Amino acid sequence: MPVIDRIARLHGDMTAWRRHLHTYPETAFEEHQTQDFVAERLREAGIEVHRGLAGTGVVGTLSVGDGPAIGLRADMDALHIPEATGVAHQSVHAGRMHACGHDGHMAMLLGAARYLAETRRFRGTVRFIFQPAEENEAGGRRMIEDGLFERFPVDSVYGMHNWPGMEPGCFAVRPGPVMAAFDIFEIVVTGRGTHGAMPHLGIDPVVVAAEIIGALQTIASRAVDPLDSAVVTVTQVHAGDTWNVIPDTATLRGTARAFREDVQEAVEAGVRRIADGIAAAHGAGAEVRYERRYPPTVNHESEAEVAARVAADVSGSDAVDRDPPPSMGAEDFAFMLRERPGAYVRIGNGPCGEGCSLHNPTYDFNDDILPVGATYWARLVETVLDADA
Ligand SMILES: [Zn+2]
Ligand SMILES: [Zn+2]
Question: Which of 64, 86, 308, 384 gives 20 to 30 Å between its CA and that of 229?
Fold first, then answer.
């Protein structure tokens, strides 16, 4: 069962919506124009709209008779990246762009909403969940804290993300972990500043920080079971201002990823042990801040099966990878999957040459897959909320 005809005829509209959203990207919790646009499109389709959850979030509700409720989630935010695609619909908001395809995610869900509101071939309730601030700021958690699932109950919840490097319109979904937990850490090493030519008169925090950076690499290789996955990456090193002065402090920042809580605990313990121990060995001090940002994204067994079946109906079973390797990237849909059963699928965005990866300044969402993604959403609703069941 390929793309639904009515949705194929919405391809032009979805493309226009996607490109409009791409031209006016907004970042975490500032998605005001985006919120207006999404709410307006839902209202045009005759869908009841609630605004304001997590500030700029939008929830659309469409009910047909009595039945279960399903949540479909799209993310709304852009990234702090100056766009370098050169396309006609390039961002006009300096320093911001939709480099993760959330513009496409919104357009696909709006297309499905339009179709479902017209055809109403299901029994139950669909919640169209448009969430702000997926990147770094946990807008999904904020929506839950604002009462998302109390005010707009659902029995299951589903998410979708485009995936560069996968053939356009193919799907990948598996039960269990699909995206990693996202932790951050900061280590402030305090030594004692002195003349660069007289290091013996102070305590050099730069040398201590360098040793810490090296030793942090042993967490994944020595402190975590080789059969488990973990990443510890230092992404920032800040110390000193000039050629001939040893500074007082050096600051390291970075991120850690894992799929399970006990591995996160081992990583956090390792970061603290290494920072404290190495600093102490040199007579310096180390202050460690370790923060758990997102939990792992873990698909539920039966919902992942439903998602795979629907994806196979849409694109053919050869086009569905039922055992994709999990990604060490992170996703705040994880918070929704902790509250309700559901599944998160990847949809292929097309071949990935240099620069088309997510978060790259030359990335652009592939408009060819809009009808495929919208059809997946529509068929998922018609399957889970089967009117004939
Ligand atoms: Zn992203
Ligand atoms: Zn994303």
Answer: 308
Nearest ligand to the C-alpha atom of residue 131:
2
CATH code of the domain containing 73: 3.40.630.10
For 46, left (φ over 0), alpha (ψ -120 to 50), or beta?
left
Identify whether residues 332 and 240 lie together within a single domain. Answer: no
74 C-alpha vs ligand 1 centroid, how far in Å? 12
Residue 324, C-beta contacts closer than 8 angstroms, at least 6 positions apart: 172, 173, 174, 178, 346
Read off the tokens for 230. 């973990």
Distance separating alpha carbons of residues 46 and 28, to the nearest angstrom: 28
Ligand nearest to the CA of 102: 2
Helix, strand or coil, per DSSP, at residue 206: helix
What distance in angstroms lies between residue 192's CA and the mean position of ligand 1's atoms? 40
Question: 80: number of CA atoms within 13 Å, CB side?
Answer: 6
In tens, the pLDDT along 207-245 reads 999 999 999 999 999 999 999 999 999 999 999 999 999
